[in-house]
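Backbone-to-sequence.
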């Protein structure tokens, strides 16, 4: 029987990362009653390193009812220090004590497991959300009028399901994106960033006997050490029990590979070699990393897509706008996507497939320009941070020195003008304000019967 209330639509989410969990929870909070989440992993045993949670995403998490739990383990960032990697000399110090007053929410750092766990616990409280683990999307069989997909359980036979809305949060290696663009006769072109990253977690007990290192894990400061073609950003997480370091450096281990490998076991000696010109303080931290526990990630993006949607199927998060981490907005954008999708589908005037397809296109219109701007800004910031000796670096360092006067910082993550633009952005309020106008402006797409 055809449904008439949008909240009775069958919503299927592919992927249970930050974006997938946020999307499922956002639809549940909007009153949708039939939400299935398919995840290829066997459970949500979250791993990973630290993550920044800026005010724009905390605003969404608070509306979803899970921020209070996440905040218990988070560090409330009060300032940031940008330093020359080789000397530890401070290039700029930006105070951030008034985030709550300016934007209604703090800027926090935390463990990825804490953020994902808070979203997961929020989902578990919603009986309308059902998880299907160890189940991989094999094929999108149709996009309209009702999407059909083939799923492969790890221990079982492949099977097909239908739904009303298919939302693909299946990451940068998105099967949905590849198949959808193939159906439309275009390809998804990966863009080589030339960058890779180490993600490092140091324990308090390993740092507390060194006064300088103890001061780092005790503070509420985000520190970035920058050098030619490389940098390290670091901050405390998990109630100051862990010090997180994330790096960016030239990609040497992945560049020659022809497969889709994104992670590899790294060499401690190779890591130390990459940062051998950095100051003794950084060297002492890197030397604390246990042998055999060095992992390196390839930082990948792809060129802007011609479309995020087709029929009643939409991409979100890294599946459609992956970003370099230099602006700390990747997870935030994915979670915002989910909130905007739920807002758009909840506002449709009827449940016809053509209407759903039109609402998904409104979602893309609401999000495309904003996310593209942040992706470009992250890339730009990385280029500026990684300058080598020369006039451009001299000009950059003058900007750092004069930041208090001109209100702008070359490290765009720390720049007050950029923070104001990103942190004051309320994605849900924008959707509520603009949906009707955008919906009316679009032609209703022809959907196959």
């Amino acid at each position: 029987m055809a449904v008439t209330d949008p909240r009775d639509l069958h919503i299927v989410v592919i992927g249970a990362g930050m974006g997938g969990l946020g999307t499922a929870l956002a639809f549940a909070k909007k009153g949708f009653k039939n939400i299935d989440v398919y995840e290829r992993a066997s459970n949500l045993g979250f791993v990973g390193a630290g993550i920044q949670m800026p005010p724009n995403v905390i605003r969404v998490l608070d509306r979803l009812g899970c921020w209070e739990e996440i905040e218990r383990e988070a560090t409330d960032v009060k300032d940031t220090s940008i330093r020359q990697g080789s000397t530890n000399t401070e290039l700029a110090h930006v105070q951030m004590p008034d985030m709550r007053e300016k934007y209604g929410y703090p800027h926090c750092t935390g463990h990825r497991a804490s953020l994902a766990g808070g979203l997961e616990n929020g989902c578990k409280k919603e009986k309308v959300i059902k998880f299907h683990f160890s189940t991989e999307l094999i094929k999108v069989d149709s996009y309209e009028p009702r999407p059909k997909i083939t799923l492969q359980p790890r221990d079982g036979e492949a099977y097909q399901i239908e739904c009303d809305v298919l939302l693909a949060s299946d990451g940068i290696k998105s099967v949905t994106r590849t198949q959808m663009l193939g159906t439309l006769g275009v390809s998804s072109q990966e863009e080589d960033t030339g960058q890779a990253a180490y993600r490092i977690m140091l324990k308090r007990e390993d740092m507390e006997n060194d006064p300088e290192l103890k001061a780092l894990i005790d503070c509420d400061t985000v520190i970035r050490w920058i050098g030619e073609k490389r940098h390290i950003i670091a901050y405390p997480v998990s109630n100051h029990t862990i010090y997180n370091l994330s790096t960016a450096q030239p990609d040497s281990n992945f560049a020659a590979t022809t497969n889709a490998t994104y992670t590899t076991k790294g060499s401690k000696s190779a890591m130390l070699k990459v940062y051998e010109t950095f100051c003794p303080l950084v060297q002492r931290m890197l030397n604390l990393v246990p042998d055999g526990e060095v992992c390196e990630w390839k930082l990948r993006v792809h060129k802007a897509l011609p479309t995020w949607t087709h029929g009643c199927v939409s991409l979100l998060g890294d599946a459609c706008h992956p970003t370099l981490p230099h602006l700390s907005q990747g997870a935030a954008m994915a979670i915002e996507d989910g909130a905007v999708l739920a807002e758009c589908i909840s506002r449709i005037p009827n449940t016809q497939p053509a209407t759903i397809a039109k609402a998904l296109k409104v979602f893309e219109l609401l999000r495309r320009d904003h996310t593209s701007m942040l992706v470009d800004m992250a890339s730009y910031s990385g280029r500026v941070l990684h300058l080598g000796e020369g006039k451009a670096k001299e000009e950059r360092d003058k900007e750092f020195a004069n930041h208090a006067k001109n209100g702008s910082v070359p490290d765009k993550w720390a720049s007050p003008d950029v923070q104001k633009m990103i942190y004051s952005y309320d994605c849900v309020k924008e959707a509520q304000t603009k949906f009707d106008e955008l919906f009316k402006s679009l032609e209703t797409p022809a959907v196959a019967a």
